[in-house]
Amino acid sequence: MASISLKGRTKNIANRSKKYVEEALYKRLFKDGGDEVSVRHQLNEFLSSRKRAYKWEVGDTIKKLRERKHYFAALKLSDTMAKRGMNMTLSDQAIHLDLIAKTYGIPAAENYFVDLPESSKYIECYGALLNCYCKELIADKAEALLEKMKELGLPITAMSYNSLMAMYTKNGQPDKVPALAQEMKSSNIMLQVYTYNVWMRALASVNDIDGVERVLDEMKRDGRVAEDWTTYSNLASIYVDAGMFDKAENALKELEKRSSKQLSPYQFLITLYGKTGNVPEAYRVWRSLRLAFPKTPNVAYLNMIQVLVNLKDLPGAEKCFKEWETDCERYDIRVANALIGAYIKDGLFDKALELKERARRRGADPNVKTWEIFLDYHLNKGEIESAINCIENAITTGRGNGAKWVPKTEVVNAMIHLFEQNKDVDGAESFMELVKEAVDNLGTEAYESLIRTYAAAGRTSPSLSRRLKMENVEVNDEYKKLLDAVTVQ
């Protein structure tokens, strides 16, 4: 009889009423693969079917969607189920707030928080909003919200302090982290493994390796929190970044002693052995991973191929890719991209192109990453038409989560400079119209190059000055003079 285990309880998913979805909901959503398009399609089919799902099942599915960064789908499921009368706990509301922030941004999450009934504004939702501020590095709002939480007497947990510590480490204020650790101690808030990891990372960012080791010693002495595999993956990464490869490998041995039955410890071991340049150990752990996970996930192959590419072991990467390609249930363009990128980097354009087409034949259309790889190649070669083709395809394809693909400013400027070199005004204008489909503001440098292109070609454009004003583009006096010459009637 089919069942699913959830927090120690076993939930039966067989022989249920026809009013309910026939299989575990998360399996229904992922049955055509884990890409955004197929997940959204399956979700829409489930919602339009009006089939029911148990609340615990919806919660479990939202968790899995979040883990795979399918935030839009998770939010839609959460929102629809709430509108259909499913009871939202405080934790559910906190998760919903987080999904809104990830999908629509901080202002939308703030509006959701404000509109919550006062009975819902407890530590869960306050903590979720604080975490959103920290993720977006909005320090002033995060600090103010923490102070308000203290004033309200909410039972602040280590999670809130962890968020602040991570924020300070990322925004260039790691010196604030030790004080937060001390505040936690004085408030009798027990430090977690993650707390110690962020504290060590903050000290490492200011090259205080001795401080990192002191924090590890303190963690060992504490006794209430045991080091786990993340402690040593974090430590090994710190040593690798510091160029202390012997210490890194000792930390990796400790990591391996504590590795669980999860995939992540194996992934970190392979990646970090790769960074130390220890190819035999990377292969040894890969063999262990394959034994532990006979049905090896695509993401594991992707990681191994990327490590081998970085180690300049292209034959090894090709062998690993061929093994994956032979056995894979679903052709994953991300895995192909890892080898396509390696081919391009080594000047093997024909091999890269052949692999792109082979992936397409196997049902894996190029994504924006694929087009970016080929775009870089064509840009470096000065092949304008091929580069434009890649940009057009990337804009049309869009991001997997439904967001627009936006070319980097450097790419736009490099393209405009190529048109300038060729004195190709029409090409430059057509390109800028194309890019406006994805970019709200092309920036001053692009328009300065366009002005130079007109001048070099001996062409005029009476409307160019007006266009710059409409785009709120300001140019310096030198370009104003050139612009006057270009816009002459």
Notes on the structure:
This protein is mainly alpha-helical. It has 27 helices and 2 strands. The protein has helices at 25-29, 36-49, 55-67, 71-83, 90-104, 106-115, 123-135, 139-151, 158-170, 177-186, 193-205, 209-222, 229-241, 245-257, 264-276, 279-292, 298-310, 314-327, 333-345, 349-361, 368-381, 384-397, 409-421, 425-435, 444-457, 464-470, 477-486; strands at residues 3-6, 9-12. The chain has a two-stranded antiparallel ribbon with strand order 1-2. Strand 1 (3-6) and strand 2 form a beta hairpin. The longest helix has 15 residues, at 90-104. Residues 1-10 have low confidence and may be disordered.
Write the layout of secondary structure elements.
Elements: E1 3-6, E2 9-12, H1 25-29, H2 36-49, H3 55-67, H4 71-83, H5 90-104, H6 106-115, H7 123-135, H8 139-151, H9 158-170, H10 177-186, H11 193-205, H12 209-222, H13 229-241, H14 245-257, H15 264-276, H16 279-292, H17 298-310, H18 314-327, H19 333-345, H20 349-361, H21 368-381, H22 384-397, H23 409-421, H24 425-435, H25 444-457, H26 464-470, H27 477-486
Antiparallel strand pairs: 1-2
Helix pairs in contact: 3-4, 4-5, 5-6, 5-7, 6-7, 7-8, 7-9, 8-9, 9-10, 9-11, 11-12, 11-13, 13-14, 13-15, 14-15, 15-16, 15-17, 17-18, 17-19, 18-19, 19-20, 19-21, 21-22, 23-24, 23-25, 25-27
